[in-house]
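Today's session is about reading a structure prediction critically. Students often jump straight to the picture, but the first step is always the sequence itself: look for stretches that repeat, for charged clusters, for runs of hydrophobic residues. Only then move on to the predicted structure, which in these notes is written as discrete structure tokens rather than atom positions. Here is the chain we will use throughout the hour.
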Amino acid sequence: MDVLKHKCFLEELLFWTIKYEFPQKMVTFLLNMLPDQDYKIAFTKTFVQHYAFIMKTLKKSHESDTMSNRIVHISVQLFSNEELARQVTEECQLLDIMVTVLLYMMESCLIKSELQDEENSLHVVVNCGEALLKNNTYWPLVSDFINILSHQSVAKKFLEDHGLLVTWMNFVSFFQGMNLNKRELNEHVEFESQTYYAAFAAELEACAQPMWGLLSHCKVRETQEYTRNVVRYCLEALQDWFDAINFVDEPAPNQVTFHLPLHRYFAMFLSKAVKCQELDLDTILPDQEMLMKLMIHPLQIQASLSEIHSNMWVRNGLQIKGQAMTYVQSHFCNSMIDPDIYLLQVCASRLDPDYFISSVFERFKVVDLLTMASQHQNTVLDSEHERSMLEGALTFLVLLLSLRLHLGMTDDEILRAEMVAQLCMNDRTHSSLLDLIPENPNPKSGIIPGSLSFESVLSAVADFKAPVFEPGGSMQQGMYTPKAEVWDKEFDPVMVILRTVYRRDVQSAMDRYTAFLKQSGKFPGNPWPPYKKRTPLHPSYRGLIKLLHCKTLHIVLFTLLYKILMDHQNLSEHVLCMVLYLIELGLENSPEQESDEEESAGGQERCHDSWFPGSNLVSNMRHFINYVRVRVPETAPEVKREPPASTSSDGLASSQSSRRKSLQRENSGTAQVFSLVAERRKKFQEIINRNTSEANQVVRPKTSMKWSAPGATPQLTTAILEVKESILSLLIKLHHKLSGKQNSYYPPWLDDVDVLIHPEIPRYSHGDGMTAVERILLKAAVQSRLNKRIIEEICRKVTPPVPPKKISSAEKKTLDKEERRQKARERQQKLLAEFASRQKSFMETAMDVESPDADIAMEVATSEQHVSEAIYDCVICGQSGPSTEDRPTGLVVLLQASSVLGQCRNSPEPRRLPTSEEEQIYPWDTCAALHDVRLTTLQRYFKDSSCLQAVSIGWEGGVYVQTCGHTLHIDCHKSYMESLRNDQVLQGFSVDKGEFTCPLCRQFANSVLPCYPGNNMERSVWPSHSNKCMQDLVQEVEDLQEQLGTFPVSISSETNLSKEMESVMKDIKSTTQKKYTDYSKTPGSPDNDFLFMYSVARTNLELELVHRGGNLCSGGASTAGKRSCLNQLFHVLAMHMRLYSIDSAYNPWRKLTQPSQDKNSELVSEELPEVPVLYRDVSSLLLIQILTMPQPLHKEHFTCIIKVLFTLLYTQALAALSVKCSAEDRMAWKESGALKKNTSSGEKSWEVLLGHVISELSKGKIYEEEETEELAVVNPDSVECYLQQFCLPFLRITSLLQHHLFGGDLPSCQEDEEFTVLASCLGLLPSFQSAHQFTSASCLDWPVPAFDMISQWCSELASFAGRHPDQVKALLIQEPKWDLPRLLQLPENYNTIFQYYHRKTCSVCTKVPKDPAVCLVCGTFVCLKGLCCKQQSYCECVLHSQNCGAGTGIFLLINASVIIIIRGHRFCLWGSVYLDAHGEEDRDLRRGKPLYICKERYKVLEQQWVSHTFDHINKRWGPHYNGL
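Below is the predicted structure for this chain, in token form.
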């Protein structure tokens, strides 16, 4: 490095800027002048001149991250300009400087390589533990280098400059063999080093990316020279490397490095040369010896991958698995495993196939296993690893021979294959696919995901599954799933195996494939991986086919087929699958068609050299092998027998083995280069001969593979086995074995000759092992007439293929075993089916948390109507029995405060979320607000205790009770809670607050509602239309109300049941906040409790009505009915209500049924008057009446109460109507009513009654102020319609109540006949009425003369009007027209929300909050976790959830686009309702895609809010400690 000499101020400035590690202001200052062209050139030259100094400063820096960013900030502006970069390259040697600086930088952290020859190695590698690599300090310099290489003119200079290439290869060799792993054999490694992150990052960034940059300029024929240069210097560097590590031919055992960048440079440039530059491969390949060296290390990596997955490296800790996974992971694979496999394919295509195959099995350490003997000793591998290593070796061979990524596939085909492989493993979202498809790491390479080809291929292979909401609460993203024809034709298990990071993904792909075949009816059983036809090989790589047609491979295949047939140990279905795959590959790619005739002629004097006559698989398949010499331990069963007399008759006799040796000796002299090969092959052949043994089933009983003590290994001796099989005969026997039947294979061409002409038959494309065998035999027959003949012959010898005397026990055993297995399998299937059906019925009865409108098949008490007592099952102790006073049973319930009803509004148009300053939401028109105002007004003018019975509360903070329908003994529940308390496991709920999950269905709950003992359905005992007259019933109801004490469970004697009822009442009270229960002017007054209790009943009825869609048209016993706890709840409430006596003078029943005697008493009293009857809420009166009657109630009394209350309701409707019409209309009605007043049905005609109401009300000052909104209710039809609409809400609530108290389904009907149907269902409508002349008034049944009652009720109003004329109309009950509760409507595009809210300031501290959120119920803007808005340790969101939703809050987090739910003391992330164009969420807005509302998801959110099922459906809850 030269000494810096400064000649001008700019140089001085830059020097100090660097010295002080690029202060931001200086960087800005220097960059601001770049528009001046002269300055730009001068500055760039100065920057290059100081490059080495920058590197030194960077290495010393403590803040290297910040400094790196600032360097790149400058350099990217200088080097991205091609013209400037070229000029500086020419004038200032930019390339030289960069490469040298990089080299210098790395030289500071080199260590001696321990690869191969630890002592004498001269090779040095970077130390991955150094800060330089660990912190990626080198990246600014590397990124500059990659940046200038992207310019063609600069890259050309680089590729032409031999000196630079040498230096660069020198640089790359520093990474060759870094981060060496040594296998721990004894104890677990103490400290797991994490240096592998640094190593992989370094190879990718410092070696692979510059390589991809250079490759992008080698795309045309004219650039051949560049490739030659790179390959030449790469090979030189490799040769130096082999010399430095003292490499001869065997890799050191138990070592592996995943980093071979020189090999990968060589491979990628070869691939480019053939693919784009039409270079002749052989002109740039080195000699055989070099190829043999080149293949060793990549092959070592493949074998090590297999070892790692076989848990042989387990003592090296998890990090070694991490390396194996990173090596194949999508961001690394095309710079790591793909070039490695390609390089091995090139070597295999040019080297002797026998040598290559034997090397593979040797590397995978399974040579010893490839013996025909039943026992063997493996000197290099434990027996528990043998199976997976054998699978690994065969799988690797299949990959090597099947992959065409660099051997002839086009870019689009590769993209398609990659995409299919990823989609077959799992459905994928668009963004994860983009991430998983390996892209060419160089950004300017052209084929990048997101490009047109990506989208078009995606639409060709996959269907888009719109984002749905799965029951069970998991939010689905928009997914792509493979089309059916892709599964059918393109599913490629080989590609899947290559690309799986986790082994379980291969299984997942197979499971999905199995499911597809079952579903489409193509194959019912467990299929094997399908065989897929490959794209044809590029001519340069035709040599690869030789591997499939070499004797060594055929011997291995033969041996393995034989071993599998013989049930030797350590073999698996996977091994068989791969063996068959290799045979099939061989048949598909036969070298050239052999002529059958000459073959048969030369057949007699076969070459006695080895097992098989030639090297062609097609002819070798039919070759019979009779005897084989094997080396076996003395203990093996083969030794016990004498060898057959005629050993030398055929096959391999002793003389031949010696002859073979001499043959090889002669070979060794001929060509020096091959000596290595010959040596290896000789060794391998000997091993094979020594091992390959065959014994038939007959001869050999199964032996256990236990040796004697491991120390005393038995000697190996030689035995000769009788085999008499060919590959074809083994295949046919395997078919018999797989099918479990003798003679199961029948050649298909005997029935249908066409099979041979068109062998591509779809029925063979999917199936299991038998299908594979059939497919192979068919292909063998198609390829050669002789094979066809031999297959037929073998099948003709249907009787056992060996002499009959020998069949006997062993075979029989196998058959028996098969049969037994079959039976066991059937038994198991049966059991499983039984389990499944049980589970299914359980799921049907218990698990319907998902949607409130699905059906539940579980009555709370499932006994028949005539049984007197209800029987309950306890889900804890499993006993069944009635609920008794001593040992009560209870329903598992969840009590929660709810303000959903309060959010109803009386307009059908839902409110929008404000997205500008103009749109604000004012909650004046909500149900809760209006009820609140009404109560306050009543309290101002009337007596407090009477006001508190004239309305219902609970619109806000009402208590909603829901159950999963399961029951348990209350004492069992207590011990269950105790055990939960002692359980140390972290639960998602708080046991101290009484929370638990139902022991059976795991639904969230927090209390137990006692079941009232006694009858289950006394409901059916009472006739619905009684014969008693109305007057008697009215009197009976009054008497029943008087006998307050006689509740069947007397309170005086404390029983367990009454205690539980009290405790659950406490729970109900404490569920909601005090402000929602205290409405009286005198705090703690009993009237409060009274009001609260009947309001709980009201809240639950109203909510059930909302869940049914706001009306009862659908009828039936809804979900709510089947798992409703209203009946039990009523008992608990009634018991407590009867503790409060109503003074008989104030009993509303009297006012409804008896004309009062003294009219003046009220005016005398000092205190405020009672609320006039016409101002009272009829539904509230109904609940008060019902709940203060002794339980169980009789149906006739219930009907009587309804009839009386209906008369009041009807009068209220008339009064409200009279106020709405104009003065002229009123006069008209008054007169027409007076005319008909004395007709017989006067009391049942609305005209008469309306006239009467008007005339009575005119006595007061009610109609005086004429400011009504004029209602054109002139025609009788609209009046009738108005009256029906007015009465409907009451009828609905009453029908629901009747349904819960007395059973009986709700009738379904059309919307326009809902009134009639409900009225007749409630017994208001005399049955003889025909429908067409129906009027609502015909439902009236006055207990006393109508006109007297109406006059009395109206007089109360008249006297009130005298005192407060302004309020009299406001308090009249208006027609209630509530719409269903809705969340705020959200805008289509998320950007609308984001732009308005993410800059909105907090109202408390006027700063923009860090985490803004908005409430989706009322639109309030809140700060999540904001300390500014904290009040008494409650953060704003939690506080708002209590005020707005009584503990339930739904917030949209503006900066994350997700919704969070707060429920009491817990919260959960619900998910997002905004998705991008591919149906994916963008949590935290990381990907920055435009987001659009997903209406379905929002509907689901609203549905969960309205049905109060957040707790059941969302699973991941956590405590928020008031900090949100």
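Discussion point for the tutorial: The mean pLDDT is 81.
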